[in-house]
Amino acid sequence: MSHTFNTPRYGFLIDASKCIDCRTCMVSCSVENNVSMETTRIWIKETGVTGTFPDLSRYTVPYHCMHCVDPSCVSACTVGALQRTEDGIVKYDNDICIGCRYCMYACPFEVPNYEWDQQLPLVVKCDMCFSRLEEGQQPACAQTCPTGAIQFGKYEDMLALAHRMIEENPGKYVDHIYGEEENGGTATLYISPVPFEELGFPIAGTTSPAYSNRLVTEGTPLVAGAMLVGLSGAYLTIKNEKEEAEEERRLAEQTPVAAGEEDSHAS
Amino acid sequence: MIEALSRRNFLKMGAVTTGALVVGEFVPPVVAQIATEAGMLNASGDGYIPTMCEMCVWRCGLIAKVKDGRVVKLDGNPDHPHSKGHLCVRGQSGLMNTYDPDRVLKPLIRVGKRGEGKFREASWDEALDLTASHMQRIKDTYGPEAMVFSSTHNLSQVQFENLLYAFGSPNYGTQRSLCFNAMIVANQMTYGMEEPERIYDDQLQYVILTGRNLFEAISTSETGELSEAISRGVKVVYLDPRFTKTAAKASEWLPIKPGTDLAFHLALLNVIIKEKLYNESFVEAYTIGFDDLAQEVQDFTPEWAAPLTEIPAETIRRIAQEFAAAAPYALAHNGWRTSNFINSFQTQRAITILNALVGNWNVTMKASAGESSGALGTPPQPPYPRSSAMRLDGVPYKYPVVPLKLGVFQELRDNIVSGEPYQAHGWFISRQNPIMSLPDRTKTLKAFEKMDFIATVDIFLNDTAWFSDIVLPEASYLERYDPLLPVGSRVFLRQPVIEPQGEAKSALWIYKQLGERLGLGDFFQYTDEEDYIRQQLAPLGVTLDEIRMNGYVELPASEEEEEPSFTWNTPSGKIELFSDTLDRVGFPGVPTWQAPPQPPQGQFYLLTGKVAQATQFATQNNQLLKKYADEPRLWLNNSVAEDRGMEDGDWVEVTSQVGKVHIRLKVTQGIRPDCVYLTPGYGHLSKGLTAAYGVGASDSALHVTYTDPASGSQALTQTFVTIRKV
């Protein structure tokens, strides 16, 4: 099996400076995708209220599947329930899923959610509202966002827009497009006025652990025992890479990015 | 009565659920047939139908996706100026209101005691006959004024008013005095209009928001416009004792001491006049009363305001200078509900005047195109009977400048309790919830006890319906027609996207049925909802079927080129810095300082304020909103909590002069130490709201009634509370 990964066709650009934490995206997604009342495909990541009264700040941002170019979840899925389409959408087929949750452990972004309340629990995650795309509509979250914090379009356009937003607004954003390189690149991109770690984003490496997963899921006979051993190997690989990446990030973010960053918010 | 549905997969239930919910005789699927003929649904019944949202009063245009006779998704209509393709979180959740398992789907008649929640189902004929006979009996025995009518700002309001005027009662209870009377009366007195429209275009440079929490009290288009403005680098100064989500996005957050917004704005006026930063030619040409104003504010310096507002004098002076320097591309937002203290009317006057001084008219503010239905037809009707009875809400004899259609709702309630100047005996309420909306809930329940008869029209057993004698089930906004709504140059249609569930009926139908039973049929000359809309459309030369697909029709363009107007509908025809109207009835002609009361030692200001996931007291039962809303808690400053040995999550008892509630604490830096904040609209009494019952605590149980004598506004932050750990 060959693994050449094409650039995603579509992409999200999510701007933490514009999110007002209204949760419209969450309800819109829940309705569109008939998500059960006990789970969700979108979360709000936040810094919490920081600073000292009255010099306070708070940042929030919606968070959902990154749609990796080389998705770890796809490589970890033993039954092929997770697939990356030609368009770069990481899709999930609940008719095939056996509920093993390997994808949850594999995902460096902690995205797949689980229907813990169900007797036959399945995984829940964003599929870019592909059925809406087929009808020429935007994904449910992007379509309705009242402030335009969630943009959706061609991946190249979103990436170019992200760069432009950072370049044209010196001091407003940290100089980092989350998703441009994380895990080998993702279709969901973020820009933010505060370091992503403060928003609670996972620190992901710049290469996908999918390769080591594939060694396991494809290279090993599909015997349960071997699978377990193999996947714990994959887990350790991911864990190790995450730790390395965290250290790398910490060093990078100690260096000031742009002038006036501290003035970008209420003083 | 109605079997509770599982909270899961409410949208999946399709045919089975619909079948189970339908009571009574088979009704052919008219909505689907019409929508198919209009080309909106395909042969399998799938497609998109435009209509209008009703999750708040902003009324965005929406497009409903329909599948197999069920609405499965709502999105904003790009052609509607209020939605521009977006819906907010409440709008997105709207179909959950329609499919709420707590819907009332047959008329109900009370069989237990009031408030016990025991009802029996009845036919429409029985319920309407009984309602009309009670109303007629009260009219015959005590006069029409003994019936109180209340409803607020619905699209069917015009026919609600028709019923009350035809019946002959002067007692009309809107909820506006609990909301924006201060803002509207101030605009009337200054600009001769209810509310100018705000312009957030590329030229805008500076905005002052006085408690207007636009990122939580969402008005979709305006929220989006403010967000874009902030992204463009527009400076936004935000005054609020609480670090709201708007505070988090503002350029500058000023945690002002409650009740002193007036001092802040008077000081801005002082600086702008003293330093001659105002637009002299504009003031000269288009305003009256500048000298009176200058004299009145001469001592209200930033140094005077600083200890009152707890904002440094240099900050106030700087903001005045910045605002004037940005003018005319500067906007002082009137806010929506700023009736926080009885001095809020003066605050509102000061804000309107601040705009006038810098000459931003037709730049960042203009006359609103409004929702005037002048171009539309109306069914013919005879003149209304004259009503000579005094109004129970004291308008105009006690509140001379409050417009009749706004009224003073809390005063109406008080006079129902006192029986002065006469006793009211019946209350007809449509889609309104005075038990939750009025301050001092205990007193509102006393007013209910005074009533021989109460009927409520709603889609749920809201708290008011719970205490009513008859509940008339209305069709939800996705299931019915309403009168047309003009917005700017277009007239928008609310049309049903699915059949009404159960036996629910539109307000247009309910009012007509009651009117006919009360011998007032001549006032309701329309055969059904579609006929009503056809009569409205007749002067435009278009048919209802022609406008279904777009959901709107363009109004014919005015023949004259529209020039920006510089005349105002005030007695002088100018912007009235000094108002002779106010002066003559004994109120200050120019805004002046009125010191607000302050909490005694050990007590806190009780703040309320909206969250994005709720509209007033009407949406807490919506399971989708509940899923994503925060648990309502009492905010307390972290240093105060530490001093008092209280921790996040502790249960506390909150006590005011009129009530007591229990609620969990949220300990946060984001609030002044002299304030606590309670999410309003929770603490429902109705057990018919199964998702909302038992959640949060009621602000109306705590609020003390304080009415501003000028605007009739209820002062919502003038209540002080103590808290103790329980």
Structure report:
In chain A, 31% of the residues lie in helices and 15% in strands. Chain A is α+β, with helices and mostly antiparallel strands and 267 residues long. Chain A has one domain: Alpha-Beta Plaits (2-Layer Sandwich), CATH 3.30.70.20. Chain A has a three-stranded mixed β-sheet with strand order 10-1-11. In chain A, strands 2-5 form a two-stranded antiparallel ribbon. A two-stranded antiparallel ribbon of chain A has the order 3-4. In chain A, helix 7 (210-217) runs antiparallel to helix 8. Chain A is globular, with a radius of gyration of 19 Å. Chain B is α/β, with parallel strands linked by helices. Among the domains of chain B are: 108-175 and 373-473 and 503-520, 3-Layer(aba) Sandwich (Rossmann fold); 181-369, 3-Layer(aba) Sandwich (Dimethylsulfoxide Reductase, domain 2), CATH 3.40.228; 604-725, Barwin-like endoglucanases (Beta Barrel), CATH 2.40.40.20. Chain B has 25 helices and 27 strands. Chain B has a seven-stranded mixed β-sheet. A six-stranded mixed barrel of chain B has the order 22-26-23-25-24-27. In chain B, strand 24 (651-655) and strand 25 (660-668) form a beta hairpin. Chain B starts with 13 loop residues before the first helix and ends with a strand. Mean pLDDT of chain B is 93; it is low at 1-25.
